[in-house]
Amino acid sequence: MLIVLRSDASQPDRDRVVDLIESLGYKSQLIDGHERAFVAIVDHDGRVDIARIAALPGVEEVIRVTRPYRMVAREWRAEPTVVRLPGGLTVGGREVLIVAGPCAVESEAQILATARAVKGAGASALRAGAFKPRTSPYAFQGLGARGLELLAAARAETGLLIVTEAMDEEGLAQVAAVADVIQIGARNMQNYALLKQAGRAGKPILLKRGASAGITDLLLSAEYVLTEGNPDVILCERGIRGPDATTRNLFDLNAIPAVKALSHLPIIADPSHGTGRRAMVPAMARAALAAGADGLLIEVHVSPDEALSDGAQSLYPEQFALLMEELRGIAAAIGRELA
Ligand code: PEP
Ligand code: MN
Question: At what angle do helices 145-158 and 108-121 cross, to 10 degrees?
Fold first, then answer.
């Protein structure tokens, strides 16, 4: 970390900066330039409170030269993390994991029919919410525990892995008892108590990017899970709030190669929430795979027109089957294959 001092910083100003750094237990080094001086903090562990230093008199700017996260960084682990899932499936290696299903579990008939359809098209995992974080308290909130039972039944019949969301600390253990992968949704990306608990859940975590979160925020949230002892985090780009209401979100394809450059963790993409519009989902699914996503999360519903949530962005089963064919071709072209 480099502290740039103002050109008019006095000797007492300099001393105060050095004293604060040393009182925090770090070494400092003064670099006296022609026009101004700098103080470098040597060997700190990332826990320095930048705001406290920046507020000192005589300080112009504090520049971070190291990243705020550690365990999720590329520098921490040279090899990409390959998350191993039941049934020999992996995420983060050569295989591309396709996770599909309705936004929410609505009924036995709906979830089983959708599970059969996505399985038939070649998906590896079924994703549907039993507990749904909805923007409106009047909207369908999910079937809760009954939804989890129906997901377990769908797995028993189809062999698909189950991905489903835990919304709060009370529900996490309940979800962990059924899910093969626990989703932490966009709204909870910065629920630090939940993230810590996810770090002790003993199951892989699918961590979705918050609607207003930067890439650094996403990586810091993943860091919470890793620091609690769970290395199996799969990140998910699902779009962020943008200026244009034409689409539900601004699907940030840049985030995929950006995360790959910064972190060893796998990242999958969710073009369903990214676009909010069924007609746009296949194009962005193909683009995300081409951009390097380690998997895709795609909402599919047997009868989207009757869906209780996110019907407008859910593919019809036939559309999904066609998309899977296209994805196979793209995967082959970039030296990967669908799991
Ligand atoms: C969902 O996955 O259905 C969902 C609610 O997504 P997000 O958390 O990305 O909004
Ligand atoms: Mn949804």
Answer: 40
Could you identify the atom of ligand 1 that is nearest to the CA of residue 129?
A: 3
Angle, helices 317-333 vs 108-121, to 10°: value is 30
Of ligand 1's atoms, which has the minimum distance to the CA of residue 165? 2
Tell me if 130 sits within 8 A of 143, measured CB to CB: yes
What pTM did the predictor assign? 0.92
Listed in sequence order, the residues at least 6 apart from 268 whose beta carbon sits closer than 8 Å to its beta carbon are 91, 97, 99, 206, 234, 235, 236, 237, 293, 294, 295, 296, 297
Residue 26: phi, psi to the nearest 5? -110, 165
Continuous H helices in the chain: 11-23, 50-54, 108-121, 145-158, 169-176, 192-198, 215-227, 255-262, 271-275, 281-290, 317-333
Taking a C-beta distance cutoff of 8 angstroms, is the pair 58, 14 a contact? yes
Which tens digits make up the pLDDT trace of 240-293? 999 999 999 999 999 999 999 999 999 999 999 999 999 999 999 999 999 999
Regarding the beta carbon of 274 and ligand 1, being less than 6 Å apart is answered: no
> 129 alpha carbon to ligand 2 midpoint, in Å?
8
* Ligand 1 site, residue 100, Cβ cutoff 6 A: no
Residue 273 CB less than 6 A away from ligand 1: yes
d(CA 270, CA 278): 12
